[in-house]
Description:
The first copy, chain A, is α+β, with helices and mostly antiparallel strands. The first copy, chain A, folds into 2 domains: 3-77, Glutaredoxin (3-Layer(aba) Sandwich); 90-210, Up-down Bundle (Glutathione S-transferase Yfyf (Class Pi), Chain A, domain 2). Helices cover 59% and strands 8% of the residues of chain A. Chain A has helices at residues 12-24, 43-48, 67-77, 90-124, 130-151, 164-167, 170-178, 183-187, 190-200, 203-210; strands spanning 3-6, 28-31, 56-59, 62-65. Chain A has a 4-stranded mixed beta sheet with strand order 2-1-3-4, covered by helices on one side. In chain A, strand 1, helix 1 (12-24) and strand 2 form a beta-alpha-beta unit. In chain A, helix 1 runs parallel beside helix 3 (67-77), helix 1 packs across helix 10 and helix 4 packs antiparallel against helix 5. The interface between A and B is medium-sized, with 30 and 30 residues.
Amino acid sequence: MVVKVHGPTFTAATRRVLACLIEKGIDYEIVPLDLLNRAHKDPEYLKLQPFGVVPVIEDGDFTLYESRAILRYYAEKYKSEGTELLGKTVEERGVVEQWLEVEGQNYHPPIDTLIVHLKVFPKMGVPADMKLVEESEEKLAKVLDIYEERLSKSKYLAGDFFSLADLSHLPATEYLVNDIGKDYMIRDRKHVSAWWDDISSRPSWKKVLQL
Amino acid sequence: MVVKVHGPTFTAATRRVLACLIEKGIDYEIVPLDLLNRAHKDPEYLKLQPFGVVPVIEDGDFTLYESRAILRYYAEKYKSEGTELLGKTVEERGVVEQWLEVEGQNYHPPIDTLIVHLKVFPKMGVPADMKLVEESEEKLAKVLDIYEERLSKSKYLAGDFFSLADLSHLPATEYLVNDIGKDYMIRDRKHVSAWWDDISSRPSWKKVLQL
Lengths: 211, 211
């Protein structure tokens, strides 16, 4: 069964899902969605994803949205195929879940604000709120200091194995490093920098960036 | 092994964890934390929870934070004990995960803003930002309209079974209904209202409120 992924390949949430499908060796088909023409607010799309955001997957007659829920679903469904992404024990999975939550609650939001104000708004001719930009960078710096400490003790976030916790950080960090000139936030932290080099050089991520 | 739960019993995240432990019949011990005296920023506490928020659990020498990660850990570790909270199939769990993410990303944040501005700030003598209150209520109303549609088709969020997805909504909804006078947001929606009556009358939740 080929998994249909509805969503444009440049959004963080869609890229997160694609990276997971590639790591697991699952066949997928991208169903492009024209966000500029508000295709994500179309009644047909809202039947699949009532909140009107991307992505949503269709796998036969099973549909699922929320990118991090989709990651967990495929990592569990195909546990023994491709890269093991949830750890080997229930405790390892617990720690994977902890860092997945940290990514969703603490890491992604300030980067999202930076992207909106430093990349999206300029394209639309809307002035950035530089006070908010500064506050978001301060928040993110504190989070990254905790990551630096963590990654000085284990190679990956959840332990000495690559997992969904790391994978989920790929899209936002890619924007931070390569799109809005904030690469110093990663590069100024030795262990975070080495971790980023490691996870961003995975073939799955390189493939996502080519899509 | 008795699970130590560090955190005051009035916070949403701690209550979420306690409700889960009670549903699973797991013995716990609450380690109170004096937030007013900034015990959550104490170096000893930061060793357990580097972000300085509550709760964190200690289970023997295993520690874990992020309330929704703790829910998943115990629901999986004790899958066959107490209430089944993750569904029976990998698809059911996928849908549980979807609604857990919706709760964390779409439902909790606007309620959190309402609580801060309508309950916490008044106690501190800080004026509420009424424009932000209004925006948060609008956001939440849209989310609740989607819940109303969903709950017209299934008894609980993830299907016809109570799960972590429902449980995770208990703390914020309790505040909304009983602490800041916004009960009409639940009561004006027939299926959301019936769902709230159902889940909030569970013995586990009544016990949490007595702690």
